[in-house]
User: What shape does this take?
Amino acid sequence: MQFQQEQDYTKKLDAGLWRRLIGYMKPYHKHLLAIMATMAVSALCDTIFPLLTREAIDTFIGGGATTGKAWFAARYIGTVLLQSACIYTFCRICGKAENGINRHIRKLCFKRLEELSFSYYDQTPVGYIISRMTSDTARLGETVAWGLVDLFWSGAYILITAVAMFLLNVRMALLVLSVMPVIAAVAVWFQKRILSSYREVRKTNSQITGAFNEGIMGAKTSKTLVREDANCAEFAVLTGRMRTSSIRAAVFSALFHPIVISLGSVATALVLHRGGTEVFIVDSLVTVGTLAAFVQYSTGIFEPISNIARIFADLQASQAAAERVLSLLETEPEIVDRPEVIEQFGDSFNPKKENWPDIRGDVEFDHVSFHYSTGEEVLEDFNLKVKAGQTVALVGETGSGKSTIVNLLGRFYEPTKGVIRIDGEDYRNRSILWLQAHLGYVLQQPHLFSGTIRENVRFGRLDATDSEIEAACRAVDAEDFILNLEKGYDTEVGEGGNRLSTGQKQLISFARALIAKPSIFVLDEATSSVDTQTEQKLQAAIAVALTGRTSFIIAHRLSTIRSADLILVIKNGRIIERGTHSELLGQKGYYYTLYANQFREEGERRAWEEIA
Assistant: This one.
């Protein structure tokens, strides 16, 4: 299996990246602010407990006081209740935030996928997209929601505890905090190694998802090529790489935490040594209660430091996912409308149909050239004028530019030079949705969505009634086979329409295109994958579909285009012959040779079918 080389991410931990990501979570900013506030209060409660311990030791145990115990107990219980309320609140909010953020980011990613141009799907395997939409977004939701909890609790606890320690005893506070620079150095050392390892994990995870997708979609092909063993071996290489990267990342993350804890233990030892000495000298500089509070602070402060270290590692691990999700969210479509066009006609999600002009169907290619981003020239100085209602057939060998012409017509790509006009107007002065809403497109391999036949036909026009759907199916001669199915129009077609034959799927796709009442029709080798009997039905469907519409037919079987108003023979992106069927036969050129060879082959095929 060959896999796309995914973009490599080499940036250090990037606060700007996380700010951009948080910006995409605008509907949940209130949840995140509530988490921050709740955790700050919780951290304050945690900081109060050592001070209450100090008061209990110095006032009631060491000082022998007998009054004020009720007030002390009330403050202690109140602090416990407040902290309990904080814990309950942040658990509820974090759960909602995690699930909500996952849903919102996936919704944004799916919307962006709907906006992206054909070129993105030409270059990006399905497995990589699925990985971004599932495991990467899930990782981000978990990191942002629950990581934010620990981050703000830890930060607030460290800050409040530091202030409390300096107020109690400056020298011992400095002893505790002296370990901080060492921890910072350790964190920097581990940063690069953890981040690099997790990036490799996420990258390999995408490749594994891609392998799953290819293995499932190509299962039949693998069996016919007897590639089961080879596929398993290649998959084992990928999973082995994933295992190695995951172990390396886990080892670095596992080492980071105990090193921080060990350094914290050193600080606690320094506090005990220094504070213990000062407690037992004459006129002690430190009370027993203060020493007890410092021991609690010195052991407690390194738990949030350890948490920050863990969050730091998690952020590094999740940054690989964040980079990949943002790369999708921030990928701009190559084909976009200008702002003034959107202002007048709307966009794909907010159309202003009241401003849309009707389409008659006049089409003009004016000195059009096109090349892909790789630099490969496909069309060069292509010129064509088609009047409304005419049928144009495109003929030529594979790679000659036939599909590129109709893809440019549908504005799935745009010319790199020249202009395409619809009804005399540069089609870039109209919205993409305006054009594609008036375009009927039937592919060689039609795709049906999971659902019923009725639902698939309705995709052509969502407000179509059941009677209109049935009329469209009758018009393309599809109703006979539909009614013979167990549930008729309510029969499930299966994933990709796999419960129907290729010819049946093709007829459904004709009905789906027809019900939209398009002004321009495109047939991309729509009869090349069916038998003779089904082809005859499709020919009848084509005759109905093309009536009164400007039509472009990419033809493999030349017998299907004999009635076309104009036939273009394309070679290397240029028109080498043009005319009607009879005119091209009279020229006895490339088309004549192609037709004669195919006529002979079809005659032989029909003879074999009759014998069979």
Q: What stands out?
A: The CA atoms of residues 555 and 570 lie 11 Å apart. Residues 1-10, 607-612 have pLDDT under 50 and may be disordered. The first strand starts at residue 363 and ends at 371. The two ends are 39 Å apart (CA to CA).
